Amino acid sequence: MHTWVGPDRWQGDGMTLDYLGHLGTESARFLAVLRGTDLSDRVPTCPEWDGADLLWHLGEVQWFWGSIVGEHRSSVDDLEAPPRPDSDHGLVQFFEEQSARLHHALTEADPAEPVYTWSDDKSVGFIRRRQAHEALIHRLDAELTVGDVTALDTELASDGVLEVLDVMYGGEVPWGTFTPAGVQAEVRTTDTGLTVPVALGRFTGTDPDDGTTYDDEELSVRRADKGQEPSAVVSGRAADLDAWLWHRRDESGISFEGDAAVLDTLRRMLDQPIT
């Protein structure tokens, strides 16, 4: 059994997950897949993008977080995005530079250092983890674009299942409230022994930045009762679950058991786009 215990530690069987190593490996594979290909090909998992858009997106993301960490920023004030290169060669060069810059910044920084993030976890360690998964999922996008899909690292994908549920779907904001509905599901990886209890409920609140009011179905890993019996269970291999949760793979190889209404509710929540 593996348990997530901190910004750079995944406890279990004496194993520690190397986010920086994975970030480097996944970024290199991403670029290797796209380099020299027709960047006008559409990305099937992001149909509004072509290969050039995908390359620019991950390059810009890595530029952004490289700037946050490298400049020890506590806010994004006065941080101006660079212009997008106007050639395929320029996009490749930009990605190479920003990927190396991000990796260097994360290597030099203390994982516990407080910096700006959009999460309630405002640490360099959060960025290490998040960017390893960002690179993994967009590497898969690149491979699907060219039709050359390789395996996802099992342990990284297992951590990805927890991260996407806890951070991307179930992340908390100070101006909102999650109210449990009293029912829970569980997501289990059959190959790594990860079990993630998921509380179903509603999120309510008003965003102070733009005044938008929310009253939506939502899930929460942090508000789940670990002693409560789940009404439904979703299980599968870590790589299949991680890709499915990110809308990069269909339900093949994934098992759905338990209360049909709870499974329908969970599916509705997970069908929402991740932004």
Topology overview:
Layout: E1 3-6, E2 9-11, H1 19-34, E3 42-43, E4 46-50, H2 51-70, H3 88-108, H4 124-146, H5 154-169, E5 176-189, E6 195-206, E7 213-220, E8 232-236, H6 238-245, E9 255-258, H7 260-270
Parallel strand pairs: 5-8
Antiparallel strand pairs: 1-2, 3-4, 5-6, 6-7, 8-9
Helix pairs in contact: 1-3, 1-4, 2-3, 2-4, 5-6
What structural keywords apply?
single chain; 275 residues; alpha+beta; Four Helix Bundle (Hemerythrin (Met), subunit A); Nonspecific Lipid-transfer Protein, Chain A; five-stranded mixed β-sheet; two-stranded antiparallel ribbon
Concise overview:
The protein is 42% helix and 21% strand.
What does this 3D model show about the protein?
It is a single chain. 42% of the residues lie in helices and 21% in strands. The chain has 2 domains: 3-150, dinb family like domain (Four Helix Bundle (Hemerythrin (Met), subunit A), Up-down Bundle); 155-270, 2-Layer Sandwich (Nonspecific Lipid-transfer Protein, Chain A), CATH 3.30.1050. The strands form 3 sheets. The chain has a 5-stranded mixed β-sheet. The longest helix is centred in the middle third of the chain and has 23 residues, at 124-146. Helix 2 (51-70) packs antiparallel against helix 4 (124-146) and helix 5 (154-169) packs parallel to helix 6 (238-245). Mean pLDDT is 93; it is low at 1-15. A hairpin with a 2-residue loop joins strand 3 and strand 4. It is globular, with a radius of gyration of 19 Å. The two termini are 30 Å apart. The chain is built from 7 helices and 9 strands. The protein is α+β, with helices and mostly antiparallel strands and 275 residues long.
